[in-house]
Amino acid sequence: MHTLEIAGKTYNSRLLVGTGKYKDFTETRAAIDASGAEIVTVAIRRTNIGQNAGEPSLLDYLPPEEFTYLPNTAGCYSADDAIRTLRLARELLDGHTLVKLEVLGDQQTLYPNVVETIKAAEVLVKEGFDIMVYTSDDPIIARQLEEIGCCAVMPMASLIGSGMGILNPWNLQIIIENAKVPVLVDAGVGTASDAAIAMELGCDGVLMNAAIAGAQNPVLMATAMRKAVEAGREAFLAGRMPKKLYSAAPSSPTTGLIA
């Protein structure tokens, strides 16, 4: 009931976390341990996972035998750049195929370029990659990416690193209701309540980085996010009571009272 399945593998945690923006790899490890995450995403262009010999490697702090790596294309602004980056990641991680595709539209907003994203996805799926794809909250684009063969769609809640939370829950609900692959909110989560709301809407998981790494106490925030994702998922499965403007049916009985 509580496991998440992506590309044929199951995970107990529905919280996926990034590995960037921490003060050092020691803090990265502590926060990820606190989060309970099993999938960790890494920006190939910004983090050393063996491409820079002689420098500290993330692999030493987060061994691949303990975590599922999700190489991403952060910093890529064209399909060609994203494709090259993920081919490199596959080499560095000994044929690893589970990746996160993101192609950005501009350096100010980091809004996804969905045209370039679709172009990259078409090539990468044919090359055998299992693609979790960052996209806008457009239900039509999400459907197209699923039809191409992406193993999960990851619509934004709001702009990357903004911490603004879920700005359009209605679009997310449309995506969730129509998707046949996992839907995970990616980008814009700022605090635990944002993660809980995403899960209460029916999302299969949440991916975040800045919300944890940018907190004053990243390890404590990671703990809070773990609890929020778990609570939100359980609330979704439980089925909330209907919303009412006022209650015409009191929670306590009005008949059979002692006079």
How would you explain this protein's 3D organization?
With 259 residues, the chain is an alpha/beta fold. 37% of the residues lie in helices and 16% in strands. The protein is built from 9 helices and 10 strands. The strands form 3 sheets. A 5-stranded parallel beta sheet has the order 5-4-3-10-9. α1 links the parallel β3 and β4. α1 packs parallel to α9 and α7 runs parallel beside α9. The N and C termini lie far apart (48 Å). The model has no long low-confidence stretch (mean pLDDT 91).
Strand-helix topology:
Blueprint: E1 4-6, E2 9-11, E3 15-18, H1 25-35, E4 39-43, H2 58-61, E5 68-72, H3 79-92, E6 98-101, H4 114-126, E7 130-135, H5 139-148, E8 152-155, H6 169-178, E9 184-186, H7 192-200, E10 205-208, H8 210-213, H9 218-238
Parallel strand pairs: 3-4, 3-10, 4-5, 6-7, 7-8, 9-10
Antiparallel strand pairs: 1-2
Alpha carbon gap, first and last residue: 48 Å
Strand content: 15-25%
Query: How many β-strand stretches?
Result: 10
Order of helices and strands: EEEHEHEHEHEHEHEHEHH
What structural class results from the helix and strand content? alpha/beta
Shape: globular
Radius of gyration: 20 Å
List low-pLDDT spans. Answer: none
**Percent of residues in helical segments?**
25-40%
Profile the largest sheet.
5 strands, parallel
- Mean pLDDT level: 91
The strands making up the biggest β-sheet line up spatially as 5-4-3-10-9
- Count of helix runs: 9
Keywords:
single chain, 259 residues, alpha/beta, five-stranded parallel β-sheet, 10 strands
